[in-house]
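User: Design a sequence. Structure:
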């Protein structure tokens, strides 16, 4: 099965136009979107404007992509720039069949493969915190808090680091409860695994990926692990793939004006992989 993966388009019309041309040309059976696909939204009303973007632009874009290729399925996860209500909006379209929202709770089966998806990342300097968690339960709290969606009160509220991160399980605890998967499968995680060729930032002298995601991959050994989040890493490390045991790990990165995406055949991902920029 031919698969196309990209991440971190951040609502860019230019990148979405390039993705449409790529899908039309390559005709994959499955397109996977690895989080942070949406506009950040209006700072004065970020949640409502991002949800409006989902309804008025993102889902129509997905439907347009599917119309280009007969039988194309589109699956996605969220990212650290996204709000919980945007996921609720996408979940409504998931139920209607326009798009598949991947999770760790229930594998999605398609094309002879199972898929799990995980949206959370370790703490970042950005202000939206809905999908940020401590990596390990023993991690020190970051200094910076931010804003999150208050589900019970249906509003955005400001939270200190203590209030936010102590209110949620760490990523390692989350991933420990991930569904069991039989046979060949693919893991889609917005954040890459720690200490690989996939988690390097310019002017930062340490890897910034997730130790919990790395441990999960090493233990569960999916056939392929697909990642985004760290846009610059492939340019810095010189590689958009790495291996953890038998798992091929991929982070295509992302550009401002040129689409970074990866295509591969699920029967032999390592031999068939191709990057839109680096290959």
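Assistant: Done.
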């Amino acid at each position: 099965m031919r698969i196309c993966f990209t991440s971190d388009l951040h609502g860019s019309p230019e990148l979405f136009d390039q993705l449409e041309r790529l899908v039309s040309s390559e005709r994959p059976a499955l397109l996977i979107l690895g989080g942070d696909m949406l506009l950040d939204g209006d700072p004065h009303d970020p949640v409502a404007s991002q949800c409006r973007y989902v309804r008025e632009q993102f889902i129509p874009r997905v439907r347009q992509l599917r119309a280009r290729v007969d039988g194309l399925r589109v699956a996605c996860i969220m990212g650290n720039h996204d709000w919980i209500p945007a996921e609720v909006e996408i979940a409504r379209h998931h139920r209607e069949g326009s798009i598949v929202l991947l999770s760790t709770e229930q594998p999605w089966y398609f094309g002879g493969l199972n898929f799990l998806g995980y949206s959370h990342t370790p703490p970042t300097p950005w202000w939206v915190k809905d999908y940020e968690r401590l990596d390990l339960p023993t991690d020190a709290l970051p200094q910076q808090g931010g804003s999150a969606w208050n589900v019970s009160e249906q509003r955005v509220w400001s939270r200190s680091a203590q209030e936010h991160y102590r209110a949620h399980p760490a990523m390692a605890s989350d991933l420990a409860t991930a569904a069991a998967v039989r046979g060949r499968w693919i893991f889609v995680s917005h954040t890459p695994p720690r200490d690989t060729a996939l988690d390097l930032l310019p002017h930062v002298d340490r890897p910034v990926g997730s130790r919990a995601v790395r441990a999960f991959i090493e233990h569960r050994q999916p056939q392929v692990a697909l990642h985004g989040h760290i846009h610059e890493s492939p340019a810095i490390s010189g590689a958009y793939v790495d291996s953890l045991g038998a798992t091929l790990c991929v982070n295509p990165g992302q550009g401002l004006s040129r689409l970074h995406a990866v295509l591969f055949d699920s029967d032999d991902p390592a031999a068939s992989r191709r990057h839109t920029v680096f290959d």
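The first helix runs from residue 13 to 26. Residues 135 and 231 are 20 Å apart (CA to CA).
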